[in-house]
Amino acid sequence: MEKIVAKLLIYGDMPEDSILMQLANVAKDLHKPEYDKEDLIARVYRQVKRLLELGTENAFDDNLWHNYLTYLLIMDENPFSLTCEKVGSKDGSVNHFATADFHAFKQLFEYDFREIEDKLGIDCFSCITSYKAIEKPELMYNTNVSEKVRDLSSRLESARSDQEFFNIVTDFYKRIGVGEFGLNKAFRIRELANGKIEFNPINNMDKVVLKDLVGYEIQKKKLIENTKAFVDGKKANNVLLFGDSGTGKSTSIKAIVNEYYGDGLRMIEIYKYQFRLLSQLIAQIKNRNYKFIIYMDDLSFEEDESDYKFLKAVIEGGVETKPDNILIYATSNRRHLIKETWKDRRDVEQDGDIHRSDTMEEKLSLANRFGVNIGYYKPSRQEYYSIVKELAKRNGIDMEESQLMLEADRWELNHGGLSGRCAQQFINHLSGK
Predict the structure, then answer these.
(1) Which residue range or ranges hold the AAA+ ATPase domain (predicted)?
(2) Residue 106: phi, psi to the nearest 5?
């Protein structure tokens, strides 16, 4: 194994503590004239445990060794894989080195662990190459990662030549992508000690789709039109969804990401205290072959907060143009995002017409930088009834209509008033009985 790993060039800069490098070192030490058998067994078991942990975390199955090697190929963001992500596999000298690396990976796929097992008197590799995963709820792992790795692993197992192996991997890079962005829909960010940003996948994102959101057809149509133009590479606008709480603003954005994930749409959720990282965030994603929505939930500012000025410059107006593959979608209970007070009108001047004060213009200009503004308002009582009836139907609740409406009225009186969220909570309550 150590000789195969030593031949890797493009994929050869894996961390020394990776499972593959550690097992290669075990194989190397095993070929020395003298070796400590117990030490090598302990080292093997540590790496097998890591394989089991990775397999459990991602619900890998059948052959954990193949799943692991496939996971390495998917996650390695190198110049070759990133180029394939953007333009596919093109003729070039780099293909010669990539093909050699894929030949090495094909050898690793076919590697016979019997020598290690026979010399050390162990059978763990026989077990992990014919592995049966424990069934568990989907919420316990990321199905996007699991399904894609297992599917690609199965296809690579059947590759009959180095060229076929090459074609399968590069096709995956072009269709799906490379690294965390290729496997996941949504992310949060974390600042590292070196000042860089780390993207943390959101593994249990709500699977809601737009048809699950009852009503608000005009609002959904506007959101779909803008997002469809965006993923198609056409001009699109930043979007502000504003209005009453519980009306489906956040749900609409989650649904739109689920709808267009297959078209390369990804979402990055960012909090207000992280706005100072926006420039760095944009710099790290602007050259990737995805469309990114930077999502800001429940966005609003108090009158003494000034972070909104930085956000204004990033959205539109700074020296650097915002990349075409990035839009900002925000939700807010406030139409103009920033708290406005009567004292903001004190410097209003009158000269034939009434002109808004500079303070007011400063505050209102942030909301104006969202090209699409979509209002979500509390439903009327009849609309509330319609939402309740539709949700009851979808959840198989069989109750006489007048009784259902009576119970719905009682529920909303004690749970925040008329809203889609209140209706959903009421149906959850009935379903749980």
Answers:
(1) 235-353
(2) -65, -40
**Is the alpha carbon torsion for 198, 199, 204, 205 positive or negative?**
positive
Q: How is residue 173 written in tokens? A: 């890079």
CATH architecture of 197-376: 3-Layer(aba) Sandwich (3.40)
Centroid of chain to Cα 146: 14
Phi-psi region of 335 (alpha: psi -120 to 50; beta: other; left: phi over 0): alpha
Q: Domain residues of the chain, as ranges?
A: 2-183, 197-376, 381-431
Rg (alpha carbons) of the chain, rounded to whole number: 27
Tens of pLDDT, residues 417-431: 888 888 888 888 888
Instruction: Please name which of 184, 206, 316 lies closest in space to residue 256, comparing C-alpha atoms.
Output: 206
Instruction: Return the SS3 of 193.
Output: coil
What does residue 249 show for φ and ψ, rounded to 5 degrees?
-65, -55
The rounded distance, in Å, linking the Cα atoms of 44 and 31 is: 15
Triad 114, 13, 130: Cα angle to 5°: 30
With bands split at pLDDT 50, 70 and 90, how would you rate the model's confidence at 194?
Answer: confident
Alpha-carbon distance of 407 to 401, in angstroms, equals 10
Dist. CA 101–CA 4, nearest whole Å: 9
Conformational region of residue 121, where left means phi above 0, alpha means psi within -120 to 50, and beta covers everything else: left
The angle subtended at Cα 44 by Cα 21 and Cα 180, nearest 5°, is 45
Alpha carbon distance 244, 257 (integer Å) = 22
Amino acid at site 32: K
Q: What is the pTM of this model?
A: 0.78
What's the CA gap between 348 and 358, in Å, rounded? 8
pLDDT in tens, 58-90: 888 889 999 999 999 999 999 899 989 888 877
